Amino acid sequence: MHNSAHADGIEVALAYPAETRVTEVVPTCNVCQSDHIQRVDPQYNFCRCDSCGYVFDSPRPSIAEITAFYSQPAHYDSWLQEEHGRDALWRRRLKKFLPHRAKGNLLDIGAGIGQFLHHAQPLFTQVAGTEVSKSAVRIAKEKYGMDLYTGQVEELDLPLSSFDNITLFHVLEHVSDPARLMRRCMELLRPQGVLAIAVPNDVLAWTSKIKKLGKRMKLGRFEKFSPVLGIARAGDSREIHLSHFTPAVLRQLINNSGLTIGEESLDPYYVSNGARLMLDSVYYALHRTLYSVFTINYYDTIWMIARKP
Ligand SMILES: [Zn+2]
Fold first, then answer.
1. CA of 233 to the centre of ligand 1 (A)
2. Straight-line distance from the first to the last Cα atom of the chain, in angstroms, rounded to the nearest whole number
3. CA of 269 to the centre of ligand 1 (A)
4. What's residue 80's pLDDT?
5. What span, in angstroms and rounded, lies between the C-alpha atoms of 85 and 89?
6. What distance in angstroms lies between residue 272's CA and the mean position of ligand 1's atoms?
């Protein structure tokens, strides 16, 4: 089945970038194994588990197709153009992680072009990273002198119980088997090792509610969003997200892997400058305050710290 379908001259949802093909159907919930799956928005390939609420893409592209998508030479050009904004982002995340880290080494899964490891390196005894994109691995080497492992962390030959810290910044939503990745983190961590996770919060975020409303009111600029979930078609962003987590679903995924949840918070994920940076910072601070008082997260992202017993 190819994704660029046209019916009666009306364009049907282009759910994935033209380079990728939608080939895999997901029969059971990755989080709770239930087979009670609802197709909440078939036009956008969004499904939801009736038992635990996990929202995911099905059908979806295969991992080979996703890897090819991220390995396109120009894929990271915008990251390089936003270098300073991204430096600031990595410093914010590092600052947020430091109070929770274990002394010792760090493994960054889905390390991209190695920018986080570049900032983190002085604070850990050793740093390592994994990355599926060949073009990102090449940039990491050229720009930061960082030798990343190429491939999926689940497949790489890494020493078990050997990492004091693992970071998973916006990785879980990209992988085809999040539960397997969590189990992999569990076995790679040393006892008392710390895992930091950040993912989008796009099922519950205010911004998704606004996008959903805009789409239902047929406002042009909201065209690309699902009228059911307010989430964009993967093909309309530069990313392919296969999972759409809520804090409750992420919590269940972490608990199932045997890790213990520590801090829950919001990920200061924004990349901007000038007046926009000020707005983004205020919006984040506002939601952090709301979260600390009511423990409700309607922000764009979820942040969790987990520990191996
Ligand atoms: Zn489920």
1. 22
2. 45
3. 27
4. 82
5. 6
6. 36
Candidates 147, 189, 191; CA nearest to 168 is: 189
Q: Residue 169 — φ and ψ, nearest 5°?
A: -90, 110
For position 97, what pLDDT does the model report?
Answer: 98
Closest CA to 253 of 53, 35, 93, 101: 53
Output the CA 203–ligand 1 centroid distance in Å.
Answer: 15
Query: What's the pLDDT score for residue 74?
Result: 79
Distance 276 CA to ligand 1 centre (A): 38
Q: Is the Cβ–Cβ distance between 161 and 188 less than 8 Å? A: yes
Q: According to the model, what pLDDT value does residue 53 have?
A: 97
Tokens 């996770």 map to which residue? 197
Q: What is the pTM of this model?
A: 0.91
- Report how far ligand 1's centroid is from the alpha carbon of 309 (Å): 25
- Contacts with 207 (C-beta within 8 Å, 6 or more apart), sequence order: 230, 300
What is the H or E stretch that residue 107 is in?
strand 106-109
pLDDT of 62 reads 80
Distance 29 CA to ligand 1 centre (A): 5
Which residue stretches of 71-202 are H helix? 77-81, 83-97, 115-120, 134-144, 178-188
Residues of the chain predicted below pLDDT 70: 1-22, 234-238
Nearest partner of 260 among 159, 191, 204, judged by Cα: 191
